[in-house]
Amino acid sequence: MAHFLTFHHKRLAVALASGVAGLALMAGSAQAGGFASRLGSTDATAQAWAGSAAAGLGIGGIGVNPAVVTSLDGLNAETGGAGVFPDASLSRTTFNATTAVPGLAGAGILGAVNGVAGAAPQQTGNFATSVLTAGSYFNVQLNKQWYFGLSVTAPFGLGVNYNGNAVFAADRTRARITTVNVQPVLGVKLNDQWSVGFGFQVQWINLTFEQRVSTLAPQLGTGQVTAQDVGIGFTAGVTYEPIKGTQLGIGYRSSIDH
């Protein structure tokens, strides 16, 4: 669950916006673990998501605050993307992991493996997987007051991939999450200052988790779990423009259970 409260001014960079948006970003990422990917809007990424609940990022802001859909008249569309190319490695001489034996409660095969005390540490190489992510946003003015918008993003989508012979293989050799989040929204301009928006989210998720049965006996092969699910959530928000060129915004996105 993530909450965003931001302040945007066309001519002024406001530290409060950066601070609050940054705290919201960290809170959301902490709950999502290492798989969160907030790179769907290139404008928002470049500004560290500061001002994202107001209209400063264009229609890309509807992913955070659906009321932003009323900020641009006519018909508008935006697509952006980013690439993540991490480099991470580990070294370890020994690693202990227990693999359960079906039918034997409390029993297991200990995988203290691929290493001897005092030997040179084994290198995993780069186990972080590269990923390309994108986001698309669209809005259309239906009449003088009502607006429709749509965002398609991938909020989670990172993974790790260890060498199958590494000492970590008894714990995992591969883990990856892929998501697609579709969010249609409606916004209404109450007057020249106030707008409200609301919508729902449909999120598809695919999880792959793989580990070697036991590195003591590689011939036993690997086990893999693959799961898919679709979750539903909702979103709502408000924007307020006290004076021309200055806008306040607050947006809410519910959690989605899988």
Automatic annotation (TrEMBL):
Molecular-function annotations in GO: long-chain fatty acid transporting porin activity
Keywords assigned: Cell outer membrane, Membrane, Signal, Transmembrane, Transmembrane beta strand
Signal peptide: 1-32
Transmembrane segments: none
Keyword presence, Signal: yes
Localization in the cell: Cell outer membrane
Membrane topology field: Multi-pass membrane protein
One cellular component term from this protein's GO annotations in UniProt: cell outer membrane
Family recorded in the similarity comment: Belongs to the OmpP1/FadL family.
Name assigned to this protein: Outer membrane protein beta-barrel domain-containing protein
Species of origin: Candidatus Raskinella chloraquaticus
